[in-house]
Amino acid sequence: MSRTTVVLADDHHLVRQGLRTLLEAEGEFGVIGEEADGLKVVDLVERLRPNVLVLDVQMPGLTGLEITRQIVQRGLRTRVVILSMHANETYVLEAMRHGAAGYVLKDANPSEVVEAVREVGAGRRYLSRALSEHAIEAYAQKAQAAASDPYESLTTREREVLQVMAESSSVSEVAARLGISPRTVETHRENLMRKLGLQSQTDLIRYALRRGILPLED
Fold this sequence. Notes:
By secondary structure, this protein is of the alpha/beta class. The protein is 50% helix and 14% strand. The chain folds into 2 domains: 4-145, Response regulator (Rossmann fold), CATH 3.40.50; 150-211, Winged helix-like DNA-binding domain superfamily/Winged helix DNA-binding domain (Arc Repressor Mutant, subunit A). The chain has helices spanning 13-24, 38-48, 64-73, 89-97, 110-121, 136-145, 156-167, 171-178, 182-196, 201-211; strands at 4-9, 29-35, 52-56, 79-84, 102-105, 126-127. The protein has a 6-stranded parallel beta sheet, sandwiched between helices. It starts with a strand and ends in a 7-residue tail after the last helix.
C-alpha cells in the first residue's frame, strides 16, 4: 500500500517535530518536507506535490488561509489540513471557503491529527470532534455562498504585501522579504490601502489584527 505523503508547515520547530514523529509512527504516512516561512510554503508544495499539507493557520509571511487559497488557485492537488486554536464558526467557514479539506484544533487529541490526515488524504473532509459533527456540509455550503468583501479584490501580491507590511513596517524590509523593489512595494501598498479604505500604517495593522492576519497579543 502506498504511503500518504505529507508536508508540514508551522513556524515552531518543536511542533513540526512532534507532528512528524506522530505521523511517521503510523507507518502509512511519509513526511517529505517541512517549512517555517509562510511565503515559501506554496512553492514547496508545488515542488514536492504531497498528498496532504498540514498547515498552521497563523504563519509568518502568509497566513494559512492565504496559503490554502494560493494552492487551490494554482490547481495543485494537495489537500490541506488546517491546525488552529480558533473553534468559532467564522474561522472554520473562512478555512473551508479558501479550500481547506480539514480543520483540527491545536488542543485536540493527537489521534485527531492522524485521523484528519488519513481522512483528507482519502479525499474526504474532516473537522475536529469539538466542532459539530454534522456541520461539515453546512460549512461547505455556507462557504460557497459567502458574500465577497473588499479583501477578496486584493491580488495575491497585494495580500503578501499586506501581511508582511503589517509584520514589519519598513518598506525596505518588505521589499527584501518579498524579493521586489521598494517602489513596487509602495505601489502595491497604495493599491491595497485604497481597496480596503485604509489611511495609515496604524489602520493597516488594525485591519490585519481584526482580519486574523496578525495574531492578537495575549
